[in-house]
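Hey, quick one: can you model this chain's 3D structure?
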Amino acid sequence: MLELLLLCQIGFAAFIQVVAPATISDGPYIFHQEDGTLKSISIVENEVISETIKLQESGTKIPTTIPFVPIISLDTKSDSIPASQHELPPKVLAVSDLEGNLPHLIQFLQTHNIIDMNFDWAWGDGHLLFNGDSVDRGEQVTELLWFIRKLQQQANAAGGQVHFVLGNHDVMILADDIRYTHNKYKSVAELTGIPYHELFGETSVLGKWLRNQNSIVQIGPYIFVHAGFSPELHKTGLSLTEINNRIRLAIGPPAWPDRDELATSLAWHSKGPLWYRGYFEKHAEKYGPKPTAKELQAILDFHKATAIIVGHTVTGNVGYLEGNKHLIGIDVHWDTMGEGEGLLITNGVRTRLTYDGESKELLDIPTGK
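Sure thing. Here's the predicted structure for all 369 residues.
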């Protein structure tokens, strides 16, 4: 335990050095060029460093100053579109709404032996799922995205999976809605002369990777979606793959296009999977209405599912919404030390993993005002 605490302190110290009060350090942002080379742009203490890199047939590896991602590996598999549905593995862990809070995630994953002390995948054939809103608000967004991408590669090699579900904030930054972005990244845009959303444009390695990810993932009988699965979405009759493909096409920019029709504006509509909050009484008037028991069961039956797992709306703990075993909320305060939690499903048994290493029963979460 002492070794764990010391290593975590080292990790925190590294972040303090990266984001000093008077200076900005960030990156790398890597772009594919028309001539077949790569362009890497980083900021080190307010100095913009640009480098041209040749792609290697055997696989290109790019060193970084990120403690948790010392090497970025480029390969064709990372550019592929993941499947929308998967069989249930022996163990699944889901977390949500990290919002750039990487140090707390690192400690949580090490505590539960998902990653080792070198920050590498250690969970074998397990599945780890990020249920949306990995960006905005926090100041380690770039590092977090590269870290998740690295774990995705390592998990695949070990027979496991890392799923990255898009949330409304992930789509917002891709479409140039940066209202909630940490001020650090507004400085990054000024220093590089590149608008923030273009740092994640379609020629960007991170941008292409983000656009390939799903907005809904089903693992066995569990549907993971950032905000919720509304009855109106169910009425479209779209499969999960069709929903994911349509959202990829609608990501933007621009943000906030015409969104009168749900089926043609899934990424932006209030009844869509990135925004719907009808499961919560306090939001049902604006983002609802709340589904009836019959409507919810129809969604589950259609997809042969037993539960829907959502982030987006803060629950504070992982638990059942109003005690409903079919609805699980997992949006907790990752910005606060000790508050991180995850939903663990082991051989069909659901438990709540806490920041301090315990495994507990899911709570009943009130959804009213």
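One thing worth noting: Residues 2-18 form the longest helix (17 residues).
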